[in-house]
Amino acid sequence: MRTTRRDLLAMGTRTKGLYVSDECIHGFVDGMCATCNPKPVEAAPVAVKSAPRGRVATAQRPTVRSLRAAARIPLGVSPGDVVLEQRIYHLTHIRNLAAIVESGALSAGIDPVVGLSPAALRDERADFLIGGSSDKPVSDYVPFFLSPDATLWATVRAGDVHPRVSAEAAAADTSEFVFLVSTVRHVSAAGRDFVVADGNSEGTTTRFGVTKEDAERMLYRLRFEADGSGLLDGELLVDATLPLESITLVGVQNDKVRAQVREILDGSDFTPKISVYPPWFQPAE
After folding, report:
1. Higher pLDDT among residues 83 and 226, named by residue
2. Do the domain assignments include residue 50?
3. Residue 46 lies in a domain
């Protein structure tokens, strides 16, 4: 019988040979999500008035809008504090990993051994300029998903054809890919500028948060959409490079791939946690 994502979550955070992620749907580690774990608000005492004769006094029920507002704006928390804990996910084929480790960084504009996107799309991103950032092209940035369930990756996992996915990537097994995971906090600590897009970066209707303030504001908005769906289509783009010491986690599908990753990393200074998490690589239920 196939083990579903719900079954894995119910089993706890670790079983033999299996590490289950402790993050929520919004990409936060357990306990850090203000939406899933809103701070309790102490209710102020309310004076109770006697109901007029002939009428029954009923308690006012909170509206859906008021509940969402309370969850989205936790007391004492600023947008900057919230977005720092947002996880970001760079997806790459395992055949690209050795060159990445050798260079010591994720770098923009590098031709991968196995590209997730077709060459024509990479050329298109090289011609697409992001206004407000010295007119740099999208190809000058290292792309990160905002969720391991990003729409494009979900398409690959489902085996569907997509114009933004290369034929080689579509033909590969999903277990051949790995996630290099960081957080906005680590990007900032590395002194790297970043841009946030609310859709795929070459899209004609995609909006960008270019300045630090606008990027944090856009990420905060995507983060606090009612169901977190904004994170599935958005991207975070790191300017030029991100050193590997900013990568805290490598996510893989199974123990076999974890052993391959360990072999590639052996002898290098890159020593992240390597976690097996099948739900990131299996088709959605």
Report:
1. 83
2. no
3. no
Considering only CA atoms, which of 135, 152, 23 is closest in space to residue 90?
A: 152
β-pairing verdict for 249-252 and 273-276:
parallel
CB 17 within 8 A of CB 276: yes
Q: Tell me whether residue 22 is in a domain.
A: yes
Angle at 224 (CA atoms; ends 273, 82), nearest 5 degrees: 50
Q: What is the pLDDT of residues 235-281, one digit of tens each?
A: 999 999 999 999 999 999 999 999 999 999 999 999 999 999 999 99
Residue 18's DSSP bridge partners are: 15
Q: How far apart are CA 137 and CA 174, in angstroms?
A: 29
What is the domain count for the chain? 1
Tens-digit pLDDT profile for residues 127-174 = 888 877 567 899 999 999 999 999 999 999 999 989 999 999 999 999
Domain assignment of residue 107, given as a range:
13-37+62-280
Report the 10 Å Cβ neighbour count for 81. 14
The tokens for 232 are: 């599935």
